[in-house]
Amino acid sequence: NYSRVRIELSRTCVDRADSYFRKAIELQPNYAEPHMGLAELDLLAPMCPLNHGGQGLRAYVFNKLSAAKRLPDVRASLATALRLNKESCRANILRGVVHSYAHHWDKAEKAFERALALDAATTRVDLWYLAYLVARGRLDEVFHSVTGMCRDNPNDVAVLMLYGLLLYVRRDFREATKIFIDIGNIERGHWPCHNVFVLAFLEIVTPESMLFMVDGLPGTTLPYTFPGLVVLCLAVGGRTKAAREKLAEFEGYYEMQP
After folding, report:
1. How far apart are CA 78 and CA 39, in angstroms?
2. CA-CA distance, 51 to 62, in Å (whole number)?
3. What is the per-residue pLDDT across 116-131, written as a single tens digit (0 to 9) for each?
4. Is the pTM of this model over 0.85?
5. What whole-number distance in Å separates Cα of residue 144 and Cα of residue 137?
6. Residues 12/192, Cβ–Cβ less than 8 Å
7. ∠77-82-85 over CA atoms, to 5°?
8. Under the phi-then-psi rule, with left for phi > 0, alpha for psi from -120 to 50, and beta for the rest, what region is 257?
9. For 61, phi and psi rounded to 5 degrees?
10. Strands 49-51, 60-62: parallel, antiparallel or unpaired by DSSP?
11. pLDDT digits over 155-213, tens only?
12. β-sheet bridge partners, residue 50
């Protein structure tokens, strides 16, 4: 059950992942890993859609329960995990994440330092730890680590996505778009990648070219584009009337405001 849940979690199938974690805990309550997994799931869930079948973003219902409301459950799961395994690097990484959510940066730093002391190699390439470094403005450290991770794992979509985001933050839009295209070739329909690609594309092309995002590949591109970005592409491309119509169509779907 624990192995199956890691697969579902990697696919952001949080609804199925939750049931597998709970089943694993039921079968082996004194095994720390599922408790840590459940804590991580509660941290990830607000960022992940619940897939109800079909294609594109309209097939998803986004979880509206905020990370802050899930923190008590996360803390409880981590407390159990640490009681079962005090030397867990993973549990200390997740403790750092919880403290980061609460903006308790000193406590977060201590938790990550503990994780580094337990297993520096694993912690330095952990995506939660790298996100913490980004939040603290330590972008050069992250860029150095992620560059090496991309070299070692050229087909790892999560690593490539982080690399593309860092390139975007560094305003290297052309290289960022290349990375997002690579991700699309590896995993077609990767909607987070596609939407950041649209933002990067906005920075390097003429306004008229943005209409390509709407008209060029409607069968493969448009279903994975956030409604607000479709409106933006139309507006930037000069189709003001169409942008207003599309905005009216999408209004309420994601609780958008004009």
Report:
1. 6
2. 9
3. 999 999 999 888 899 8
4. no
5. 14
6. no
7. 125
8. beta
9. -120, 120
10. antiparallel
11. 888 888 888 888 888 888 889 888 888 888 887 777 677 778 777 877 777 666 666 66
12. 61
Task: List the structure tokens of 217.
Answer: 């590949």
Q: Is 162 exposed, middle or buried (0-12, 13-18, 19+ CB in 10 A)?
A: buried
Other Cβ atoms closer than 10 A to 179:
24
Report CA-CA distances (Å) from 9 to 42, 53, 115, 246: 11, 16, 22, 33
By the 10 Å C-beta count (0-12 exposed, 13-18 middle, 19+ buried), 93 is classed as buried
* CA distance linking residue 244 with residue 234, whole number of Å: 9
Question: If DSSP codes are grouped into helix, strand and coil, which group holds residue 50?
Answer: strand
Report which DSSP code applies to 12: T
Q: Is 115 in contact with 124 (CB distance < 8 Å)?
A: no
Tokens of 107: 């406590």
Cα(82)–Cα(104) distance, integer angstroms = 20
CB atoms within 10 A of CB 27: 11
Judge whether 183 and 190 are in contact, CB under 8 Å: yes
The position carrying tokens 């596609």 is: 194
Backbone angles phi, psi at 162, to 5 degrees: -65, -40
**CA–CA dist 17, 125 (Å, integer):** 23
Measured distance CA(22)–CA(13) in Å, rounded: 15
Joined tokens for residue 132: 């913490």
